[in-house]
Amino acid sequence: MCGIAGLIHRGKSSNVGSELQGMLQALKHRGEDSTGYALYGDTDGKNFIMRFKVGENVGEGSSSIMEDVSVYDERKKIVDQYLAELGAKVLKEERTLPYSLRYEISYDKKDLLDFSQKIESIPGVEILSMGKSLEVIKDLGNAKAVCDRYSLDKLVGTHAIGHARMATESGVDIKSAHPFWGYPFSDVSVVHNGQLTNYWNNRRALENKGMRFMSECDSELIAVYIAQKMREGASLEEGMRDSLTGLDGVFTYFVATSDSLGMAKDTMAAKPLVLYESDDLVAMGSEEIAIRSVLPQEIDTYDPFDGEVKVWQI
Amino acid sequence: MANLKTSEKKSKAQSMGMHSEVLTGRTQQKFFNPDEAENFYYFGTYDVDFNKRTDLDVKDMSAPEANKEIDNLMSQGYGTIVIKNPQGKHSLGVGILNKLNLIFEGSLGYFGMGSCDGPTVRINGRVGWSCAENLMAGKVVIEKNAGSCFGAAIRGGDLICKGSVGARTGIDMKGGTIIVGGDAGAFTGFMMQRGRIIILGDVGINLGDSMYDGTIFVGGSIGSYGSDAVDADLSKSDQDWLKRKLKVAEIGENFDVSKMKKIVAGKKLWNYDNLEPTEKKGAI
């Protein structure tokens, strides 16, 4: 089933970590296999923040293979070595969990394709996000469990999207959890509710164009599809509109960039979305109760129609 | 009548020891008898007084707790119940099987007012997916917007949304009337079998797709027609009925119904099994 939620504050920052946690926790009945956050924090915009994993959470319910923690250390060492070779300087390093790391990096090149390919050439290493304000945090468990594990409730920013997952098409693991980073674009993330039926056809075509897939989760296709469209020169909104015909199946998805947040709904409107829009805040989720967690007062909400695409700026 | 002989030979099942039970006691078949009071008892109904009014704050209640409390209040004779702080909770007000004035001061989530038979409901907010699914009788008025599958499979009653509704409004409906003051999404009237849908605004693609019967009236533009949905002439009696219905619904009273489009089933799919192969292609 899965649940998605997102919000964007226009003209100000807020405690988006805590707000998104409340929205996703309200949707936990739609899936608790994993929960993911894409948070756009207040930063000076000078350095990159790289969230990456060197292994999987092999806790209860996980479909991943148990590995010795020493393997994680080995992988981390190679990452550090490759970063040095790429000319990237690690300014700050946080290891929240043995398999999950956050690096603040000084890196002056704009093209992240070579960078990402080199880092991800290390088996077992995946960049969850790379950007100057984006941080993707995803792990097994419900929204509160993940928020507590990564101390996300204090994170201040302008906008955020998130996902509560019930695994249906692929395994219960971090690599299949949402949000997906719009590799190799800085600060692009995607969450999706639905099923895509032309996943393999699109995947083969995109892989032939040099795009990478880290999981076998159909939702990852949306991030890669839109990233490819943007690579070809399309704007975010153009890429999203194109996806209405390029992607087959049922879907409602959100895409966020450093300064915008968008939603798209398939032409059959088969997946739910409730939307609240005001001058200073847009909040949306699979169910109204998600919005109610940040706006308990009586408000006007509506369902976007079939084939609708909307994009908001901060 | 032929003189049929009963066979002495046991069937295979009987020879295996099956069919040996002796049926005794009361038959499962029920016959109506006007002298028996139980024939007039409708499970889950109460005698309520509409002038007996109370408020119920459901802010800290789960949906089952709130519904149980509504039932409890009806059993005490309350005929007008005002629900405070519904806050988008799912499945509120379901299964009410008697006359009742129910007012929600706020919005409902999914499946609100499902499987009801008789109440008059006003929701001063929005409703999520599948509002009033399987409504048998009564009136449900939504002051704001509604989600998809609005009035799915309703059998009777009036379901009114003053705002816009999502996709698949009136899907599988078998009676009753749905009235929408604003726009409606894709697949409105999908597989409807009876009843009427009135949309004052625009509708999305595939209107009336695979409808068996029933009528759809549209005031605005139509995205596209679904399989087997066709235009029909809007008669004088249709217009009179529309005026009356909109007036009773307190919605679009000044709307020019003479310009509405009337859509019905072409009934090619309805007779699908009787069609020749070449005709089947045409029907689809």
Largest β sheet strand count, sense and barrel closure of chain B: 11 strands, mixed
**Shape annotation of chain B:** globular
Share of helical residues of chain A? 25-40%
Helix/strand order of chain A: EHEEHEEHEEHEEEHHHEEEEHE
Low-confidence stretches of chain B: none
What's the story with the biggest beta sheet of chain A? Answer: 6 strands, antiparallel
Report Rg of chain B: 24 Å
**Beta-strand percent range of chain A:** 25-35%
Describe this structure in words.
- The complex is a heterodimer of chains A (314) and B (284).
- Chain A is built from eight helices and 15 strands.
- By secondary structure, chain A is of the alpha+beta class.
- Chain A has a domain of 219 residues: Aminohydrolase, N-terminal nucleophile (Ntn) domain (Glutamine Phosphoribosylpyrophosphate, subunit 1, domain 1, 4-Layer Sandwich), CATH 3.60.20.
- In chain A, strands 7-2-8-1-14-13 form a six-stranded antiparallel β-sheet. In chain A, strands 9-10-11-12-15 form a five-stranded antiparallel β-sheet, with helices on one face.
- In chain A, α6 crosses α7.
- Among the domains of chain B are: 76 residues; 103 residues, no CATH class.
- In chain B, 13% of the residues lie in helices and 23% in strands.
- Chain B has four helices and eleven strands; from the N terminus they run αβαβββββββββαβα.
- Chain B has an eleven-stranded mixed β-sheet, with helices on one face.
- Chain B is globular.
- The mean pLDDT of chain B is 89.
- The interface between A and B is medium-sized, with 20 and 30 residues.
Keywords:
heterodimer; A: 314 residues; alpha+beta; Glutamine Phosphoribosylpyrophosphate, subunit 1, domain 1; six-stranded antiparallel beta sheet; five-stranded antiparallel beta sheet; 8 helices; 26% helix; globular; B: 284 residues; alpha/beta; eleven-stranded mixed beta sheet; 11 strands
Give a short summary of the structure.
Chain A is α+β, with helices and mostly antiparallel strands and 314 residues long. Chain A contains eight helices and 15 strands. The model of chain A has no long low-confidence stretch (mean pLDDT 92).
